[in-house]
């Protein structure tokens, strides 16, 4: 059997510092072709990101739209998988070889997206935090979505486990089979839903993939490092960010999970009205 091929897509929004620090370290882990979609007003030079094609958009068009541009550009390459990866992800040596071996050995042809453990990485100190960032995305019985095992010690990660199902994959790193990309394009006309400018777009994509009767699979033996950009404590995120996240969650549950609507309605009302009221009182 011929080896699997990969084309990689980075979406950058003012991520120059990550690109310059990590690109030299793991460029060999990114497959045959690399696209960098720069969704910001600044300019990224191709020489700063080796062996890649840089597309400077000139404005922030959002995570979903930028990924869709990268996917559209990548379709001309006959790659088996599309690696969607954030610039703040650091890939260990031999990661691509290892993860493709696991995928190649998998007997399950019903997988739509492969993902891997995300381990915390301190960008300023340039070293791992020793904590787990995400082992996929799951939800509570009432509808709160969360990163599995976030904040736990990396000691709880069992790398010997075979790939297993997770409800959703974190958008920081996804490996999507070409056939699934095409299926999504044929069915919906897009891969990422661009009405989700940012937040929850990875969960919404995962839900559409599972509705194609495809699985989201975690490969525990191939972890990567992630310098998560937003505040570790979501309560410390800007009010506008929490409001947008809550709105997207409400929209997502209205379409896919009606039983989760009571929670998401209460959450949106709290963020939209109560937190906004508190902010006005604080500024007064």
Query: Mind summarizing the main beta sheet?
Result: 8 strands, mixed
Low-confidence regions: 279-284
The coarse silhouette is globular
- Distance from first to last alpha carbon: 68 Å
SSE-based structural type: alpha/beta
Instruction: Supply Rg.
Output: 19 Å
Tally of discrete structural domains: 2
Write down the overall mean pLDDT: 89
- Count helical runs: 7
Fraction of residues in helix: 25-40%
The CATH homologous superfamily of the largest domain is called Spore Coat Polysaccharide Biosynthesis Protein SpsA, Chain A
CATH secondary-structure class of the largest domain: Alpha Beta
| Assigned CATH architecture of the largest domain | Alpha-Beta Complex
Features:
Spore Coat Polysaccharide Biosynthesis Protein SpsA, Chain A; four-stranded mixed β-sheet; 7 helices; disordered C terminus
Question: Would you mind describing this structure in some detail?
Answer:
The chain is of the alpha/beta class. It has two domains: 6-229, Spore Coat Polysaccharide Biosynthesis Protein SpsA, Chain A, CATH 3.90.550; 232-284. Helices cover 34% and strands 22% of the residues. It has seven helices and 14 strands. It has helices at residues 16-26, 63-74, 95-105, 178-188, 201-210, 239-256, 261-283, and strands at 6-12, 33-38, 52-56, 81-85, 89-90, 111-115, 118-122, 127-134, 137-139, 145-147, 164-165, 173-177, 215-218, 224-226. The strands form three sheets. Strands 3-2-1-4-12-6-13-11 form an eight-stranded mixed sheet. Helix 6 runs antiparallel to helix 7. The radius of gyration is 19 Å and the shape is globular. Mean pLDDT is 89; it is low at 279-284.
